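Need fresh eyes. Consider my entry:
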Amino acid sequence: MKRNLFFSTLVLLTLLVSGIALGQQYNQHEAFAPVFYPMYGDKVRAADGTPGPEYWQNRADYAIDASLNDQDHTVKGVVTITYTNNSPQALPFVWLQLDQNIYKTESRGNAATAVSGGRWANRDAFNGGYTISSVKILEKGKEADVAYSIDDTRMQVKLAQKLKAQGGVIRLKIAFEFKIPKYGTDRLGQLDTKNGIIYEVAQWYPRMCVYDNLNGWNTLPYLGQGEFYLEYGDITYSIDAPVNHIVVGSGELLNPKDVLTAEQQKRWADATQSEKTVILRSAAEVTSANSRPAGKARLTWKFKCTNTRDVAWASSKSFVWDAARINLPGGKKSLAMSVYPVEAATDSAWNRSTEYVKHSIEFYSNYLYPYTYPTAVNVAGIVGGMEYPGIVFCSARAKKASLWGVTSHEFGHNWFPMIVGSNERKFPWMDEGFNTYINTLADERFNNGEYASNIAPTQALTHYLFHDSTESIYNIPDVTQQRNLGAVAYRKPGLGLTLLRNEIIGAQRFDSAMRYYTHAWAFKHPSPYDFFHCIENYTGETLDWFWRGWFMNQWTIDQAVVGVSYINNDPKQGSVITIRNNGQLPMPVTVEITQDNNKKETVKLPVEVWQHGTTWKFRHNSTGTVTAVNIDPRQKLPDVNRSNNQWNAAK
């Protein structure tokens, strides 16, 4: 989901919030308390933060046939789900997610929306949701009715016989239909353009809930702000659409010869070999009948996405379409694509989208884990920013730094949570925060720092993250106040990883640890404590003080310089510098010391100096009078009170 991208946004929010949070009291016994983890490792989840030797997760494969009606804006389809129970528990029932039901006027999400509305509000009194016309179980080649009940955005299917443990399989067939909302909680919808409607379609078929060893069935209702938690599997799907539409979707297009013109097939082949963007359908061709195959009223587009947790798609007769090759580690290739209306086809906007897609995928693939899908599609539409496997929806109005930022962010989600499948419904910081962190690295490197200004200075973030109405990172998103979501789900956890990398562990070690975590949990379901354990075990650092203060609580950082004295009152024999930790969160210390002989030195101290209490003295081998001491001189820490960071000798 779209991040709060720009420094101007942070400044505005800082002006709107109350005063900065001060007055915390440091307690080293609380900060470095010996017990942090609520559970110990077992054979499913090892104590070192990796999947154990008996780790299991269930599997959901889908085959979907659907059609788009562009007259009444509906999607109608049938999904066949093959669900495999790899757990050690036989299951008397299964749960499915019916997220479209949030658009029913009587939904919990609608009821829990403030009168003032908001990003997740159901707009224009739209009354949508699923029509489920049948639910069948398939056994021995025959279909049979099965008992089911629907409660808001969940459906329970009761089984006549328990689904066997450790490999038992059932097949469900569900017929569904829904109307596409104009504005679907900023995750799907319709955008009117001069050449036709752009449909962005997601959360569109009934999907299995996750059954895991932490909660059993994960059935939190979909209220809008909390995102998704899904099982992995293979998904084949077909979209029947009007012949004048271009359809793009997650995964591989299986039948390009059936749905593309001969010229478009040639251009597609050219794009797979090109470092530069190749036009598949130009702005001038959008209204030309020759840009679509002749002789039929409708076409069926067939796709397959393997080892995925979801699929999404978009369809329109208004699409300009372009593509370029993506170079992946190990010599593998993928294809970056963008579709957008002619209104957005400018060199300051979507004409550069595929360039942005290509760089994002290549950077994240090299930094963390190779991209796993054959295409990466950026869709311009009504959605401000939303991620799905192999396809993202970004605002058609975005341009320049805004378009780069939202493209990089949404494609960053293909690592968190598409590859590393955390529970977004409960822990948004494990995908939004981790993604915000890697986005800053991509911002630095794209086109020699063209959009490095997207990275907000730490000190500006300080006032945004720490104020008297802020909340903890460790909350479910639906409990977090909407005004705080950008801080506690995106910016604060993202900055937390930056602090680990640059101030606590070191860039090389932390980068390696993040790769280790990503590879260990690729296509699996880590918990927050799995992540904490994994980073600690790989780096060899005990970091419970940081997890406790930064993620679980709202502890602030306030380091101060108290004063300077000299050995035997002689500056030439060395100095003793006194520092203090006034905030509740301890951190490593960087001190810059300036002498009257113009000598300037930097001293680094580990976090362990604060295990002894609030105040610490250290000896420095100075040879002259110390004229100034500055703690955190580069302002890399979000220190809530910088007025005490500098000490200057009396003149």
About this structure: The radius of gyration is 27 Å. Confidence is low (pLDDT under 50) at residues 5-18. The CA atoms of residues 559 and 581 lie 5 Å apart.
